[in-house]
Write a structure and sequence with these properties.
It comes from Haematococcus lacustris. This is 1,4-alpha-D-glucan glucanohydrolase. With 253 residues, the chain is of the alpha/beta class. The protein has a 5-stranded parallel sheet with strand order 1-2-3-6-7. Helix 3 packs parallel to helix 5 and helix 6 packs across helix 7.
Length: 253
């Protein structure tokens, strides 16, 4: 090797240039579960009225176009049985037949997205949960399905639902019973349900709804226990409500 070439290669300028070129190479983020790869392009693939048609089937027909556009991940609506059509008042969490379509259609569209190398993100609503029946006190606090809770799973400062759990540790959500995340058995039920979505249904990650409602330490437990490829949460100023019902017009917000 020529001595002048060796000297040039060892010069401070060449070392800095080499470092800069190395830094410009695509890097993978390894900061733990839920971090993604640092180069995600996320599509919110639904709106407030998507439930009005055969959503899962329609979305499946658009997978190829979404992939060709360059999106790497897709955010889908809450998948569970819900009092509200949009899915944000979940009831029987394990029942995945909703206004968006059947569980079979959900599995099919997830599989199709993943065949096109697109991560599928589930909207996770765990701040609150609607009961299936009225309890002995006449209030809606008797939950159905595999997570058959009672009023003891509801925060006690949620009097409209007769809660007997610990005090609410975040913002109150007046439209539904607020879940007491301080209880280990409640957290375990939520984790097992999320593992079912992750390992059986096939979701790649989570979008946590209304994270202002409970401490971040619990979100961390759910992420660590389920190891999603990507996760993020909804943290924003309070929406406009009338008598506990979300207003359709949120322009002032």
């Amino acid at each position: 090797v020529d001595e002048k070439e060796e000297a040039a290669a060892a010069s401070p300028e060449s070392k800095i240039a080499a470092q800069m070129m190395e830094a410009m190479k695509p890097q993978r983020v390894g900061s733990g579960p839920g971090a993604g790869n640092g180069y995600e392009i996320l599509l919110q693939a639904f709106n407030w009225e998507s439930w009005k048609h055969s959503y899962y089937r329609t979305l499946k027909s658009q997978v190829k176009d979404i992939a060709n556009t360059g999106f790497t991940s897709i955010w889908m609506p809450p998948p569970s049985d819900s009092v509200s059509e949009q899915g944000y008042l979940p009831r029987d969490l394990y029942c995945l037949d909703s206004r968006y379509g059947t569980e079979a259609e959900l599995r099919d569209v997830i599989k199709t997205f993943q065949e096109h190398n697109i991560k599928v993100i589930a909207d996770i609503v765990v701040n609150h949960r609607c009961a299936s029946q009225q309890g002995p006190d006449g209030k809606w606090n008797k939950f159905g399905g595999r997570m058959a809770w009672d009023s003891s799973a509801i925060c006690h400062n949620n009097p409209a639902y007769g809660g007997r759990g610990a005090a609410k540790q975040g913002d109150d959500y007046t439209a539904a019973p607020n879940v007491d995340h301080t209880q280990e058995r409640v957290r375990n039920d939520i984790i097992n349900w999320m593992k079912y979505l992750r390992n059986t249904i096939g979701y790649n990650g989570w979008r946590f709804d209304f994270v202002r409602g409970y401490p971040g330490q619990f979100c961390k437990q759910y992420v660590d226990a389920t190891v999603p490829e990507m996760s993020f949460g909804e943290y924003w100023d309070s929406c406009d409500y009338t008598d506990g019902v979300l207003n359709y017009n949120q322009d002032s917000h």
